[in-house]
Amino acid sequence: MAERSTAAVDVADNSGEQPLTAAAGKATTDGAAADKKVSTHKDTQRAGHESPARDAQPPELHSGHKLARRYRLEECVTRLEGFSSWRAVDEKLRRAVGVHLLPADHPRARPVLAAARSAALLGDPRFVQVLDAVEENDLVYVVHEWLPDATELTPVLASGPMEPHEAYQLVSQVSQAMAAAHREGLAHLRLNPGSVLRTGTGQYRIRGLAVMAALRGITSEHPQRTDTEAIGALLYAALTQRWPYENDAHGLSGLPKGLGLIAPDQVRAGVHRGLSELAMRALVNDGATASRQEKPCTTPEELSKAVAAMPRIRPPEPDFATPPAYPRAQTSPRGGGPLQPLPVAPPPPLQSRTGRALKWSVSALLIAALGLGSWQLADTLLEDGQPDKPRTQSSSDDASRRADGKPVRIEDVKDFDPLGDGEEKAGGFHAVRFSHDGNPATFWSTNNYNNADFGGLKSGVGIIVDLGKKQRVGEVKVTFLNEVSVQLMTAKDSSSMPTNLSGFEKVAETKATREVSLKPKKPVETRYVLIWLTKLTQTEDGEYRGRISEIQVTS
Question: Where is the composition biased (Pro residues) (predicted)?
Answer without folding.
Answer: 340-350
